[in-house]
From TrEMBL:
InterPro entries assigned: GPAT/DHAPAT, GPAT/DHAPAT_C
Record's protein name: GPAT_C domain-containing protein
GO process terms (BP): ether lipid biosynthetic process; fatty acid metabolic process; phospholipid biosynthetic process; triglyceride biosynthetic process
GO cellular component terms, A-Z: mitochondrial membrane; peroxisomal membrane
Pfam families per the UniProt record, alphabetical: GPAT_C (PF19277)
One MF annotation (Gene Ontology) recorded for this entry: glycerone-phosphate O-acyltransferase activity
Origin species: Brugia timori
Domain (GPAT/DHAPAT C-terminal): residue spans on this chain: 21-290
Parts forming coiled coils: none
Length: 294
């Protein structure tokens, strides 16, 4: 059993939960699913990540804020702030030498993703633009600009299991401060992301995730409680944490919008993908137009 557990890839655990042998009884299937959830929870509880995953998360946030080129010193200070906040939230991070040295090491290690001359404090770092063979001009531009982001997202996602719940809660609390209502909306949101970030769909289990995230925000004094009312004390902290789940929410928006448009028609996964991609391209073009007009 120990050898079998050691060989389980956590990335494939979701598929284990979804495809249990059809010959098993319902009770046996439920037992296997619960065991799979336990493995994932145990892995997440004991996992630590290097500074690189946090760097990628910061890079994605800064890019979404409109920064096309980043000064090394600015990236370093933003990363230091994020690491400090993450440690306050109880997250464990592997720092081999120092944040500055580790950042320089990982940027050099992944130099194929960036364009820079050197890594001095005032050095400018730019995400590399990869070429693709797509003929459509606007779609080609969108894909080329997004390819590097996709790679960064892959690395950033390695630390997301520790932030998904609290990030979704921060999204909720930025607009809803009634405790009972916030709990309900969080429950609905968390259920949407059960396949990306596996958790039990039992109501009491999701409520437990809500309580843990709420307690975490209370501990760092980002919020306070007044009976059933939540008081936001540090709005900027909530916004920073909420940004971590924003890319997932944005992608869900594209897919959901396309599903609404396809109601009443028969379509394949390929059609849904193309429609979603086209919507993303259109939104990208609109953003480009707005930034140009400014």
């Amino acid at each position: 059993l120990a050898s079998a557990l050691a060989g389980i890839n956590v990335d494939s655990s979701a598929s284990i939960l979804a495809s249990v042998d059809n010959e098993l009884s319902d009770n046996e299937k439920e037992a296997v699913k619960n065991f799979g959830l336990y493995i994932i929870q145990l892995h997440n509880l004991n996992s630590t990540t290097t500074i690189w995953s946090y760097t990628c998360a910061v890079l994605l946030q800064m890019k979404s804020a409109g920064h096309k080129k980043l000064m090394f010193s600015k990236l370093q200070s933003s990363l230091e702030d994020f690491v400090t906040l993450s440690k306050r939230l109880g997250r464990r991070i592997i720092i081999r030498k120092s944040i500055k040295d580790d950042l320089r090491y990982h940027l050099k290690l992944h130099s194929d993703l960036f364009q820079y001359d050197a890594l001095f404090p005032n050095s400018l770092i730019e995400l590399r633009r990869f070429k693709c063979i797509e003929n459509n001009g606007l779609k080609k531009e969108y894909i080329e600009k997004m390819l590097c982001e996709v790679i960064l997202s892959y690395y950033a996602n390695q630390m997301m299991h520790g932030f998904v719940d609290i990030s979704l809660l921060c999204h909720v609390l930025l607009s809803i401060q009634m405790l009972s209502r916030a709990n309900h909306i969080f429950r609905e949101l968390r259920s949407l992301f059960v396949y990306e970030f596996v958790c039990s769909l039992q109501e009491e289990e999701i409520d437990k995730l809500f309580a843990e995230s709420l307690s975490c925000l209370l501990r760092i004094s980002a919020i306070s409680l007044d009976n059933d009312h939540i008081i936001v004390e540090e709005e900027q902290i909530l916004k920073q944490i909420a940004l971590l789940m924003q890319p997932f929410i944005a992608r869900y928006y594209c897919v959901m919008q396309c599903l609404v448009q396809l109601v009443g028609t028969q379509f394949t996964n390929e059609v849904l993908f193309e429609e979603s991609l086209q919507l993303a391209v259109n939104l990208f073009a609109r953003q480009q137009g707005n930034s140009t007009s400014r």
